[in-house]
Amino acid sequence: MTSQDYIQFALFVGMLWLITKPLGIYMAKVFDGTKTFLSPLLAPVEKLIYRILGVNPNEDQAWTRYSIHLLVFSAIGCAFTYAILRLQHHLPLNPAGMGVISPHLAFNTAMSFTTNTNWQSYSGESTMSYLSQMVGLTFHNFTSAAVGISVAVALIRGISRKEAKGIGNFWVDLIRCHLYVLLPLCIVYAVFLISQGMIQNFSSYVDVTTLEGAKQTIAQGPVASQVAIKMLGTNGGGFFNANAAHPYENPTPLSNFIQMLSIFSIGSALVYMLGRKVKNLKHGWAVWVTMTILFVGGVLIAAHYEYQGNPAYTQLGCSTPANMEGKETRFGIFNSSLFATVTTDASCGAVNSMHDSFTPMGGFVPLLNIMLSEIIFGGVGSGLYGMLSYILLTVFIAGLMVGRTPEYLGKKIEGREIKYVMFSMIIFALSILGFAAWGSMDPAGLAGLSNPVNHGFSKILYAYTSATGNNGSAFAGLNANTPFWNLTLAFAMYFGRFFMMIPMLAVAGSLAKKRIHPGGEGTFPVDGALFIALLMGVIIMVGALTFFPALALGPIAEHFEMLQGHFFK
Amino acid sequence: MLSTLYKSTMATLILAVICCGVYPLIVTGIGQALFPDHASGGIIQRNNKAIGAKIIGQGFSKPEYFHGRPSSAGDKGYDAANSSGSNLGPTNQKFFDAVKGNVENVLKENPTLKKGDVPVDLVTASASGLDPHISPESAMVQADRVAQARKVGVDQVKALIQEHIVGPQLGIFGESTVNVLLLNLALDEKFTVK
User: Fold this and answer.
1) Cβ–Cβ below 8 Å for A327 and B127
2) Are A340 and A376 in contact (CB under 8 A)?
3) What residues of chain A lie within 8 A of the CB of B9, using their CB?
4) Quick check: A467 pLDDT over 70?
5) B83 DSSP assignment
6) CA B108-B110-B113 angle, 5° bins
7) pLDDT at residue A450 is higher than 70
């Protein structure tokens, strides 16, 4: 890495730290229902929506009711998108005349966007009409983000309340998240993106004659409005096939920097909000530091291997072995490695470079990040509730080690909570490894591979990891638009979303009912270096050991093959 | 249960109107008002004809133009309605063959360039297939060829490249780049092909 790389990196971490507190405080206010500077403008709209929905904003829901409303709302949204996609050729706003979308692709895409995954088995500019993009897909960019944030907020309530029955009101959390958090941020952000050269129009594709006289058709569209929410909501679904590598979707290094920052912003602010709501800011910052250490480590490893590159380049006559395949000139090695780490630490999945063409160990970092279940700032909401499941496990293990009833922030952690946590962790591992094993053996799975041997296995592993982790990035050389891939991936996405979310809501409900005991001398502290070290230990042990055999067969084996100059037909 | 269904359906419709109707229209309105050129794609006109977009790469193969990076967008490359990288992995024979072919090609087109000095970005496919830029080194190694094809001094061409090198944004962000289309347009303006 060059000194300029280190400066950019330091600036990135510094900026993230700077926005964490103000945004965290603002979000805490929003979800408490206290007044913010936007209230004069938005409170009437909010009230009107509650009246139309027939929602009593003061109703406090038990976790079961909260979950049911969340599930029904998600199911309706999924059906809504499925219908739009299947009917797009009959609907307006289709200047490029996009045709019919097959049932399995529509199902996969609807599930993908409902679960905040944004896995894309299609290429946006040659498949989706503007209406499909703007309504069918952008809709979920907002709502799936808001649903994730709501769950995290409900969980924070569960932890901070004492002897309470409810964990908040799903509809209030959902609506407030849209009106006060996502929409205002997105409007400002989208305009900034346009200032950098991003497009925002409804024109048909532009035909030009190039300097050498060839015809070039340039895809257009309302890109900036979709990109703002795709990043802020850690959705990641690209308007164009090349996603944030496309010059219209990420025009400058500055737009790139802000896009990366926006992926982490809400996840980071939620960590601060946790500390604030449980009245233990030190705990919030301890969690933040844990995430930051894991993040920095990932970036350094990925950038190291991408700079070290592929010995084949120098062998063939290049001046350096640095791996520029699948990377854009304006971003270069470092900003591509940084983006790849950020997008997989969070469950974003937008890419500004092609992970498929990374060196094996460079691609290992994004894969491992998702396998750790994206708890490094993480997907909006899902990152925090994923991290909280690791925290509960850490507290539990620490309690067992010293022979005391485990406590977290004054609440006893008992068998019930740990069962919920372990249930979600086991489903996560089973979905990734089970489906990957199936895909590697079934001829229908192998049919989609464009890269052979170990890299091919990495590709299958990456696909199910990305789907289960609700990430959405891909080793994109996989042709996943087949019934086998579309359906298995859709189910992996479903498991990865709701089998994580509902157990954590159950934990929230269970914790909310408990009394808060004042901490004694023997209570395991949840701030400070010991806690950070133990938490990281648990994350790496659980995450890495579960997946090590699979990783050894994929990227690690391929790394040694590359160094020896082996290539596969 | 019915009331939950009703709430969910209504919430879906209301949020769809706000997030998918009102929001993009507000953004389009502000964007088109403040940055009309950017928002509409930054299309460049020459002699009243659209010849490309400022930040979308296009294919060049003639000796008198600077060439961009290899592109995997569409069948012939630089298809701006079909962005894509090669997605070839690092141990794929096809990847090795592609880079090998690109290196040979670049060496043949630029006889003054020596094996071992080929800039890596000039022989690898970009992520989007529409990368409008090359590194300053990749521009410099093509200067001899372009100067010869246009029958002008190499120094003049190199000076033009220097003018078109854009450093890191705000002095910090990203890499130094040369926009191939803008450089080639400037070439056409200054040194017509004789």
Assistant:
1) yes
2) no
3) 76
4) yes
5) -
6) 105
7) no
Cβ contact B87–A354 (<8 Å): yes
pLDDT tens sequence across A323-371: 999 999 999 999 999 999 999 999 899 999 999 999 999 999 999 999 9
Query: φ, ψ for residue A83 (rounded to 5)?
Result: -65, -45
The token pair that represents A207 in the structure block: 């035909």
DSSP string, A21-70: HHHHHHHHHHHHT---TTHHHHHHHHHHHHHHHT--TTPPPPHHHHHHHH
Q: Which residue has the higher pLDDT, A399 or B179?
A: B179
Q: How far is CA B149 from the centre of its chain?
A: 23
What is the predicted pLDDT for the residue at A447? 78
Beta bridge partners of A241: none
Please give the single-letter amino acid code of residue B37.
D
What is the per-residue pLDDT for B194? 59
CB–CB contact A360 B125 (8 Å): no
Contacts with A561 from chain B: Cβ below 8 Å: 91
Which amino acid, A361?
Answer: M
Q: With 80 as the cut, is the pLDDT of residue A402 above it?
A: yes
User: B17 CB near a chain A CB, below 8 Å?
Assistant: no
Q: Compare CB distances from A125 to B53, B83, B88 and report the shortest one's residue.
A: B83
Chain A CB contacts of B87 below 8 Å: 326, 354, 356-357, 450, 475-477
Contact state of B41 with A253 under an 8 Å Cβ cutoff = no
> What is the mean predicted confidence (pLDDT) over A189-210?
95
B167 to each of A195, A321, A440, B164, B172, how far by Cα in Å?
Answer: 19, 23, 46, 10, 9
Nearest to A324 by CA among B125, B72, B130: B125
> What is the rounded distance in angstroms from the CA atom of residue A359 to the CA atom of residue B72?
19
Amino acid identity for residue A419 in this structure = K
Strand, coil or helix: A412: strand
Distance from CA of B90 to the nearest CA of A (A): 6
Instruction: Please write the tens of the pLDDT for every residue from B149-176.
Output: 999 999 999 999 999 999 999 999 999 9
Q: What is the pLDDT of residues A429-446, one digit of tens each?
A: 999 999 999 999 888 888
A476 vs chain B: nearest CA distance in angstroms? 6
A326·B129 Cβ contact <8 A: no
Query: What amino acid is encoded at A318 in this protein?
Result: C
Nearest CB to B8; choose among A72, A246, A320: A72
Q: If DSSP codes are grouped into helix, strand and coil, which group holds residue B167? A: coil
Please identify which residue in the block is written with the tokens 């790496």. Answer: A540
Q: Which two tokens stand for residue B124?
A: 């690898």
| Residue B9: pLDDT over 90 | yes
The SS3 of residue B90 is coil
Cα angle value A160/A161/A164 (rounded, 5°): 155
CB contact under 8 A, B4 and A187: no
SS3 of residue A408 by DSSP: strand
* Domain spans of chain A, in order of start: 3-563
As a whole number of Å, the end-to-end CA separation of chain B is: 79
Number of other CB atoms surrounding residue A37 within 10 Å: 10
Distance (Å, whole) CA A303 – CA A294: 14
Buried b (16+ CB within 10 A) or exposed e, A377-387: bbbbbbbbbbb
Which residue from A minimizes the CA distance to B41? A199
Closest Cα to residue B85, out of A340, A358, A226?
A: A358
Q: How many residues does chain B have?
A: 194
Burial class (CB in 10 A: 0-12, 13-18, 19+), A252: buried
Residue among B103, B35, B177 at smallest CA distance from A200? B35
Q: Do A205 and B57 touch (CB under 8 A)?
A: no
- DSSP class of residue B48 equals T
With beta carbons less than 8 A apart as the criterion, state whether A407 and A413 touch: yes
What is the phi/psi pair of residue A476, to 5°?
-75, 0
Q: For the whole prediction, is pTM greater than 0.90?
A: yes
